[in-house]
Design goal:
The protein has 160 residues and is mainly beta. 9% of the residues lie in helices and 36% in strands. The chain has 2 helices and 11 strands. A hairpin with a 2-residue loop joins strand 4 and strand 5. The protein is globular and about 35 Å long. The two termini are 15 Å apart.
């Protein structure tokens, strides 16, 4: 089994609760709106990081991050983009197992045509009444097991 931390929309804030929840994962994927480079530096102290740029990531520091990324982990292909509304490829035709997005600040776990769509929600500053969340994706021989974790409480659910 391979555990992957999925985090997005930190907007410059890496919460201690997020660091604690991500401890022990083999890899971390950041779905954009990083906020500042210190966030990625903090995540890299936990595990290797794949990160993309979100719509609020501007300035020279953000230029090193792509708009999208294809990540291969544990025999699975994961496509990462910030805003799901900007998905321009067919995940099924491209052999993608998981589409990771952020932007909405709303956690989402949904499987469509055999592809897992996973939005970890926002782990940064609280916005309106939305929960502060991240996800852990377990890649197993039996398949994918995503869990969204409320950083103030229990997991919000699983579905694959």
């Amino acid at each position: 089994m391979l555990s992957v931390g999925i985090i997005s929309d930190t907007h410059g804030l890496l919460r201690p609760e997020a660091e604690q929840r991500l401890a022990g994962v083999a890899h971390i994927i950041h779905g954009g709106d990083i906020g500042k480079p210190d966030v990625i530096a903090g995540l890299r102290r936990i595990a290797p990081v794949s990160a993309i740029r979100g719509n609020t990531d501007t300035g020279e520091w953000a230029e090193e991050y792509p708009d999208t990324e294809m990540v291969r982990l544990g025999g699975h292909t994961i496509y990462v983009l910030h805003d799901i509304q900007e998905l321009r490829l067919d995940p099924v035709l491209c052999g993608v197992d998981v589409v990771v997005s952020g932007h909405s600040h709303r956690p989402r776990i949904e499987t469509v045509n055999g592809v897992l769509y996973l939005n970890p929600g926002s782990a940064g500053p609280r916005r309106f009444r939305l929960p502060v969340t991240l996800a852990i994706l377990e890649l197993t021989a039996r398949g994918l097991r995503p869990v969204v974790h409320n950083l103030g409480g229990e997991g919000l659910g699983t579905r694959s």
